[in-house]
Structures
1.
Amino acid sequence: MCSSDLSSSHPTGIDEGGTLRISLSTNVPTGTSIPYTISGIDQSDLSSGSLTGNFVVGTTDYIDLGIALDVTSGEGYETLRLTLPDQNQFIEVTINDTSTTAPSLTDTITTSNGTSLPAISADGQWIVMGESDGIVDAQIFKYNSVNDSWEYSQSVSPPAGYTTSAHSFGVSSSFSSDGSILALGAPYYPNFSSQTGAVFIYERDINDTYIFRDFIPEPNITTKNNFGFGCTLSGDGNTLVVSEYLANAGNKLTTFEYDSINSVWNVVDVLDNWTTYGFKHMYIDMSSDSQLLVASHSAGAFGGGKGVIYERSGQGWTKRDEAIPTTDLLNNMHRGSALSNDKSLLALSCNSYNKGNSNIWLFDWNPTTSSWVQRSDVIKQTISSLSFGANGDSIAMSEPDSNGMVSLITTNGNVYKIPASL
């Protein structure tokens, strides 16, 4: 009985521009010619080698394939599949699209808030900059497609009857996909002494004005739970997840579902992620279908951060995997996280808490290996002193436009265009 095994020089994937070697190990007689075919790519994807050919046992037990470095960005991952005559004998190798455009700064939104914390609607039409420097309001901007610019629309503040301290309102924020629903977290509500926390919900009317609709207090009324440090809405605006930070009773993710008939938000799950997984989460972001959630985890002021990805399980959440930056590591506190609605692009960020640079890292989901692959491009901001106003303090991301580019907005109002996929 003859048997054959195939192996690759790059089992975890190869970048465009590299050389891939596929080797054959078999017990058939020397000199035997064994044909192969390659699918999943075109001949133009190869700078050397062919989609068809032969292994010759004892003479050419391997083939070398040059992977072309083309100039087209946003093609996405490709899977090269080499098959022997027996269709059950094959090997697959992921080709990473590295011919992409680096993030480019296209705009800067200036607010009267000073340093602000952003959210952007998935359709890329609305931005909110929540307060972080002691001004108790959040400023909303609308995209003007005619002028290709962001224009100030309105400011929203806590409604009458709801007192809140400075450095609180809009520390976290989130839109529904079309921007019609807006959630604003106030983790120090009702004042800096208690820091219980709350979330305020606004709805946009026919005049494009955001009107206060709902008040969601911390369910357990626990002092210094900082409920609302992070909040994120589903695409339809009916699912809300809220994070806590520096919580006395643990660090939790609370999930709410909106009951439109009775106009109330009901708690459907509370995940004590500190007790369950040992994570403390700041900012969070959820996919449009409310099935995937990314939460930034900070090990403290001196680094060790990561992105923790949770998958919906019933009405609650179960940890699925992690994304950990592997380059340009700094002793900084990881804070920001943003996830594309299709769950394929992830951004993680850190501020400059420990007097280092503020970085934003980008990751793509590789379904072949079921893992996050970090892009080579890092958005960097050089910081020379202690600062909470850095680029990566908090981030938000839109869905791709007609050119396949995503808008990513940072804490200080910088808007970057980045390819939606590699």
2.
Amino acid sequence: MKLLFLLFGVSVIYANPLLLEYRERNVKFTSDIYKKLSTSMPDNLLVCPLSVEIVLAMVFTGAAGETARQLSVATNLPNQSDKVVDMFSKLIPQLESSDKYTFESANKIYVQNKFKVDEQYKNTVMNKFKSEIENIDFEKTTAAADMNQWVADKTHNKITDLISQKDLNEDSRLMIINAMYFKGQWLKGFKEDQTAKKPFYLNNTHYIETDMMSNKGLYKYEENAKLKAKFLELPYKGDDVTMVIALPDNPEDIKELENNIESVLQQKFDRSITVNIRIPKFQEGSSIKFKEILESLGATLPFQNGANFMNMISVEEQDPLKIAEIVQKTKIEVDEKGTVAAAATAVHMQTWRSGKIFPDIYFYADHPFIYYIKHKTAGVAFIGRYSTPKGAIQAGKYEAPVDPQIMRFSRIQKIIDARVE
């Protein structure tokens, strides 16, 4: 039995016809996997669709025939190997930091000693995907620790213990890894002395006290009556990366919003307006298996006997490969200064033997919402749902925020009406 593992994280790109096409495909793939995850993960979730596409593009490059076609369908990538390679060869160089933020991506392939990878495939992943290649003995007791250390180094110790030694054996042949890390400062930061415990409503009748950050300023803001939601864009320094928060009008309508996730991801911002904002300070992470998700999206053969990855291995190697499982670990930290996010994912392959407009607007993210981090031309890097802070659940009725000025006018009007009577 031969085994192939792949690990990956998240990324960014710039405008170009192929990259513009990629961004459109990224929205579709992100929507597809988010819909699947939202039904199986009822609380907080975080996934890195962009990195999944990158590593599966590397897998696709090694696939052939019906196996390649099904991977194309599931990932929403072109069913043309040359086009996929060209697309990602233009994407990969854009995954770099600026002087305003840190955005790091690194690829590496660990190959079992004496196992022969197809030379053309090796050249493609090295030159087009910028991957390092290193030989390893997967049966060595420190093999997992060595690879985990590489992942930890590349994610600044945010992702650890991704690979378990018990998953490595005499059949292990490759571990293809992509690790990603993002650290950005808010363009308009939050003052720590304004962070205070506030209710975060789980629904219309119960809440949990959690740290809420507050600010006021000009932000891109939209209200979408069709989606029954408000949208706020929070830019990071550098003007390339932003976080978008999609907040349903009603705390109990998060599922309805998730059912329209593709429209959520395509929300346009046409104006900047003064907004009083309040968002939670939080740290979250997820561990996700992609096999069932990809199978439900049409990629069944890559996980079965009969899978064809002939373009990945040398003709001298006799045992064919299939994907056994795909696992991703993610982490995000959101505070007054900005955001840190990281991810790594593993794809395990084996042989056939064995996923009314007021002067001020009040945007209080005090109930379940969707958030995503995107590059201005790359599309979605991270996407998540925040719905359950840590803490004790308390009873309390949700009330939408009201402009204090409007409340004051309302009290004055009641006094006037009383005097008239």
